[in-house]
Amino acid sequence: MEDSDRRYPGQDADEVVQRVIHKHVMAVLPYVGVAVLLFFLGLVAIFYGAAGDPGIPSTDFAGYTTSAIPIPLIPIGLGGILLACFMGIASIYVWWQNRLFITDENIVDMDQVGLFQRTIATLRLSRVQDISVQVKGPMQTIFHYGTVTVQTAGEKELFHFDYVPKPYEVKAIIVETYEKFAETKPVESDGLLHKTPAEPDMDGDNNFPIPKKKV
User: Fold this and answer.
1) How many whole angstroms separate alpha carbon 101 and alpha carbon 104?
2) Residue 203 has pLDDT above 70, yes or no
3) Integer CA distances (angstroms), 44 to 30, 41, 47, 53, in order
4) Residue 79 is inside which H or E element, if any?
5) pLDDT tens sequence across 49-61
6) Which of 190-201 are b and which e, b meaning 16 or more Cβ less than 10 Å from the residue's Cβ?
7) What is the reported pLDDT for 193?
8) pLDDT tens-digit map of 29-50
9) Dihedral angle over CA of 53, 56, 58, 62, nearest 10
10) Closest CA to 102 of 4, 212, 207, 6
């Protein structure tokens, strides 16, 4: 049986997944970083609470004495640690569930928005017209991730996939998968396209040559 991580909801029984791509770790790193910081702050609060720190000490000012204000540092620290663990686990779960599926028929973007919301966008390979890659800024250049944009012939003209690791390799995989699709399934019969799909415009001249049918 195929691993559930390599299937998406609604996948056809005869559809074969060629590649599953998770978002780059930089997509989740800021959230995990906040969780780690909150975890250590919780530990510090527990340490000072266990050491008997009274919170805000009493003060004498202009003949007036204020009372010490106790702060429940241990419960606050425990709450911070629990919140940090939940935030870290939830962030990693959401990151892991965000996947790009490249199959022998479709490109599927499964976008997990929070813990309880998921959207799935499916792009037929027959509608691919052009593919572009954008690597912007020093962070994306150093850590090798970027945005892959697929121009289509459908109502939604552009599909954007962000935080894609090694985006140029992903572009090559999509092109290779498309070429195999055009050779084996040159004609769409879904009622929307009734022509042989065009090859991606890799040279940027806006010409989309029609692959020849096999004889």
Assistant:
1) 10
2) no
3) 21, 5, 5, 12
4) helix 73-97
5) 877 766 666 666 6
6) eeeeeebbbbbb
7) 39
8) 999 999 999 999 999 988 888 7
9) 150
10) 6
Q: CA dihedral defined by 62, 67, 72, 74, rounded to 10 degrees?
A: 70
Q: What is the pLDDT of residue 74?
A: 85
Domain 99-215 has CATH 3.30.1050: no
Assess whether pLDDT exceeds 70 at residue 213: no
pLDDT mean over 120-126:
87
What residue spans define the domains of the chain? 30-94, 99-215
Q: Tell me the angle at which helices 73-97 and 29-50 cross, rounded to the nearest 10 degrees.
A: 160
Going by C-beta distance under 8 Å and a sequence separation of 6 or more, which residues neighbour residue 54? 68, 70, 71
Q: Which residue's structure tokens are 């074969």?
A: 16
Torsion angle (degrees, nearest 10) of CA 63, 64, 67, 68: -60
Say which residue the tokens 């799935």 belong to. Answer: 120
Residue with more model confidence, 153 or 99? 99
193: tokens are 């396209």
Q: What's the whole-number average pLDDT of the chain? A: 79
Asked if 104 and 11 count as a contact pair (C-beta separation under 8 A), the reply is no
**198: part of which helix (H) or strand (E)?**
none
Helices and strands, number each (H, E), in the chain:
4, 9
- Please, are residues 146 and 136 in contact by the beta-carbon 8 Å criterion? yes
